[in-house]
Write a structure and sequence with these properties.
With about 350 residues, the protein is mainly alpha-helical. The protein contains 14 helices and six strands. The strands form three sheets. The protein has a two-stranded antiparallel ribbon with strand order 1-2. A two-stranded parallel ribbon has the order 3-6. Strands 4-5 form a two-stranded antiparallel ribbon.
Amino acid sequence: MSGGELTLDMLDLRYNQTSKIYEAPFQLKANNGMYLVDDFGRQIASPAQVLNRWIVPMERRVDYLSFVTGGKMTVPFEAFLVFSTNLNPQDLGDEAFLRRMEYKLLLRGPAHNEFVKIFENVCNAKSLPFERSTLDSFVEKRYKQARKEFRRCQPRDILTHATNLMQFERLPYRLTPEILERAYESCFVQEEADSNPEDSVIVQVAARPCIDYWSERVEEVDTLFGKLGYLASLRDSSSGNYRDAAAEREYDTATVSNTLLAMHTTVFRHWLGMRPEQQRRDIAEYLSTPEGRAAFLSFDRRELSGMLTPPDALPDEKQRFHHELTNILMSLSQRPAENSAPAQMERIA
C-alpha cells in the first residue's frame, strides 16, 4: 500500500550503493496479492504520469524494470491493483485508462442508523458513558438540520476531541451535550463573524505527575498487603472507578482512576509473586495494626478476596489469590494468638 508519498522512482528497481543490492518496487512485492494506491491524485507526480506507468502492466500482465547499468528485465505483473480516491475519476484519467479498470465501486457515506451505531461502538470502545438522547439531539442539529453528510471516520474523530477536552480540562469522564458540541466545533472548520469571546477556561497544570502523588501516599503503608487494602478501598463499588476527592482537586477524574487501577494491579501481582511464608508474615504484620484488624473483622474470606482483587486481574490470578488468602487465614487462626493474629480471626477463617 502507498499513498500521497508515492513517486515514480518507487515503481522501479532501487539500487543501494552501499550494499550493492537492488530493492524491488511495490508492485513486484505485491505479486499474487493486492497493491492499494490510496489518495490517488494527491501524489507529487501528476495522475497522468502515474497512470501511464501502469498502462503496459495492466494490459499485458508483465512489467519492465530498469537496472542502473541501462539494462532491463521482464517480470510478471500479477498484483491486484486498486486505486482509492475521493476525487472525480474523470479528472484523473481518460476513457482508455478507465476502461482498463474493469470494476469501479462507489463507497457512499453511511446511513443514519449506521452512523449512530458506529458512534455507539466508539463510545463503548473508549468506555465513555453517554446518553442516547444526547447523541440523537447532536445528530439532528449538526447533521440533519445542517444537511451535513455522514462519514464513517467522524465518530472516531469527534470523540477523540471530546476525550482530549475532558483530560486537558479535568472534566468528568462522561459525554455531555456541551462537550460534544465543543468537540464538533474543534474538529470541523466553522465560518462565523468575529465576536467578543466568552471567558476562557483556565487550566491549572499539576505540579507533579499523578503517579508520583500516589506513590508517596502508598509508601506510607508499611506492609504490601496493607497497600493492597488501601488501594482497593479507593474503588467505588457502584461504578467500579477509583475516586479520591483530594486528588481530584489536582488531577482529572479519569487520570486518578487509571493511575490507581494500574497501581492496584501492580501491588496485587507483586503480592501473588511472594513466597507463601512471605505472604503469611506480611498478612500477620498487617493484622497487628488497628486498620488490619478492623478490615478483617468486617468481611468474610470470599467477600474480602473479591474486594482486594483489581478488576483487570486474570481469572487464574483471582482463583489463586482467593486460594492463598484462605489458606493463610486458616493457618493464622489455628495458631495461638500472640502479637500478630487477633482471636476474632475465627469469625472469618
